[in-house]
UniProtKB/TrEMBL annotation:
Gene: tmcA
The protein, known as: tRNA(Met) cytidine acetyltransferase TmcA
Listed GO biological process terms: rRNA acetylation involved in maturation of SSU-rRNA; tRNA acetylation; tRNA wobble cytosine modification
PANTHER family named among the record's database cross-references: N-ACETYLTRANSFERASE 10, RNA CYTIDINE ACETYLTRANSFERASE
Compartments in which it is found: Cytoplasm
Catalytic activity as recorded in UniProt: cytidine(34) in elongator tRNA(Met) + acetyl-CoA + ATP + H2O = N(4)-acetylcytidine(34) in elongator tRNA(Met) + ADP + phosphate + CoA + H(+)
Pfam families: GNAT_acetyltr_2, NAT10_TcmA_helicase, TmcA_N, tRNA_bind_3
EC number: 2.3.1.193
Amino acid sequence: MQQLIELSARMVREGFRRLLVIAGQPAWSEAQASTLRDSLPGDWLWVGENSGWSQHIQPRALTTLLGREFHHAVFDAREGFDVAAFAALGGTLTAGSWLVLLTPPFALWPQQPDADSLRWSDTAEPIPTPLFIDHFCRTLRDDPQTVVWQQASPFSLPDFPPWPEWHAATGAPEHEQAQILEQLQHMPPGVAVVTAPRGRGKSALAGMHIARISEPVTVTAPARAATDVLAQYAGERFNFIAPDVLLQQITAQGTLPGWLVVDEAAAIPGPLLHALVSAFPRALLTTTVQGYEGTGQGFLLKFCAGFPQLRHYTLSTPLRWAQGCPLEQVINALLLFDDEPVVKPPTGDITMQPLSARAWQETAAIYRLLASAHYRTSPLDLRRMMDAPGQHFWLAWRAQTAVAALWMVEEGGLSADLSQAVWAGFRRPRGNLVAQSLAAHGGSPLAATLRGRRISRIAVHPFCQRTGIGSALIAHARAHTTGCDYLSVSFGYTPELWRFWQRCGFSLVRLGSHREASSGCFTAMAIIPLTAAGEALRVREQTRLARDLPWLADWREETLSLPVVQSTTLSEEDWLELAGFAFAHRPLSAAYGALCRLLAHTHLPLLALRGQVSDGESEQALCQRLSLNGRKALLLSQRQECDQALLHLDADRALKLKTQVQKLQFF
């Protein structure tokens, strides 16, 4: 222990932080962590599900601490390893800190189910994650600066070479910060973005800028707790407003004066961020270029490209620790945080090939390509790619450079009973995004029995986009896919994106009824049938969409390439749909077209249904007018009115369908 104490003092002088992995049985490893806490003064934040330590937080809540600083921390990965939280914790530690990682014994760890896998594997129970654990252990073996303490082996510290003394930042602007502050001081109206890895002083820079200018300033961020550093430098001019509250102000007042400063901007949903930025003459956005908060390269490509007056600045020199910090280097190696700028177009002939999930070097290439194209790519995706079941990958290469990547996921294959229970709204098993949606919102109770392969992500090298490589890779994968009924994709609908999927051969089978918070777009789903059963599903769902389209106000003006169907009669499928709404748990959005046709065939008052479906009255106003206590009471009233209307039209048929539908919850 004395060696560790001496090394800790040296780390403060050198400006270093280190990872200490303690691998062993639970009681033993926690005892060693407690000894360290008692021997080394510090904050000693414990990150894990359970702990008796005074400073304790669960991994999923760690993002609320981004922007804060701690001296020493313990991350408990003995039952589950949330690597995004682990990386975020590393970014909060000050120079001289230890990040103590508790793990199972290395020999047992690959076979041990990981509780965190429930978040990303789409499995009912936790699964072992041998590929990621192997990657983790190889990273440790290749890293000479990490300390590993295994229960089965005597503890010894490596002989680390000396490092020059580090001089901490004084609080005054450093060279890079001073240059950017000068540019911001005289910036005309527009948007400035500062990207950097953690610890480079982005938040401090934003606070310094606020303190220097005289114009009004509004600060926002994913969480107020994450703005401590910014607030410290901004002083009395710090004026924080939460993103959702700020949007309400903008909606009520229109444009606002002065500057908007957004800390950790990539962690705010793109549509919301765009609405906030567009309301101010000037905006300063800071964001981390590492994947646990959104990658800087993808953030610039996807979000910032929409602002023609964008000014982009970077910070490269660490301020809160020394250059070459061992903790930063090992986290970067473990989670592939090498968000290098793309500088040169790849050349050469294109080759395409499928990849096994165990071909780790190629899987890493896919992940890096995804990170450059999608600013929401995160370590969660890395875990899923390596160990989740049912993953399929295709890569297009030019020489040694990956230029396009396709990631597909197996879906469907549910039993007939389970698929019908999903259709009725009685069950929602994990995973199967498109397959379940085609049952839960589509017209076929057996839709989820078909097997599909969903395109989860497609990414094309920035210098190779709009050259046909992406569609060629999809065509290649389609030609070589066997054992399933269709390929599918779920995407945030824009006309341009739909044209791409349409050119690839996809047909629309579902249109969403509300905008997604993450994209600001309506969800659309499309399939390419590969078998006769898949083709029958396509025809059925397209016909259903075409019948419903006259009542889907948000979609009427879109060019959707649906068959021409003009029918307002109540079909057999309508009766089944209405029975699912009235007698089971089918959502109103799924039954919307059938409900419109029902209301045209009955003269009953049906106030709750007509108010929302025919008159477009808001749920809040409708509840108030009908003296209903909230959305649940409104939905119950609407189901009862549908029941009443069906009985009025054909009581025998309605009762038979009621018996048939309600049986679906028992299997």
